[in-house]
Design a protein that fits this description.
single chain; about 110 residues; alpha+beta; Translation Initiation Factor IF3; 2 helices; about 25% strand
Length: about 110
């Protein structure tokens, strides 16, 4: 596969919340370019998993069903993650709900 280190999590038999927690923790610990292999048994896991991982932080390398016990296997490669949206708070501690137009302040529109 030509990838860096691969970490393996066998989470078959765990309840979904614990599965998501374990995957989130492991994903934070690996470096960009590394592969996380996840084995699980619950069919709902992938849909929930992609909700808890940061958007655009991973690449799905492989998904497959393991024939012998009908569990699932997923390989995720961690990408260098750079958020595309600004942080929720600006340096002055104000929520950025209004964009300031060039040359105008919010008070000018009142």
């Amino acid at each position: 596969m030509g990838s860096k280190h691969k970490r393996r999590l066998d989470l078959r038999g765990l309840l979904i919340p614990f599965t998501l927690l374990k995957v989130s923790q492991a994903f934070r610990e690996i470096e960009a370019g590394e592969i996380l292999e996840v084995l699980w048994g619950e069919p709902q896991v992938p849909g929930e998993l992609f909700k808890v991982l940061p958007e655009f932080s991973y690449e799905v390398v492989l998904t497959e069903t393991v024939e012998k016990d009908q569990s699932c296997r997923l390989l995720l490669r961690k990408r260098s993650y750079r958020p595309s949206r600004p942080p929720l708070m600006d340096p002055h501690g104000c929520l950025g709900s209004h964009k300031k137009e060039k040359g105008r302040s919010p008070e000018d529109s009142k």
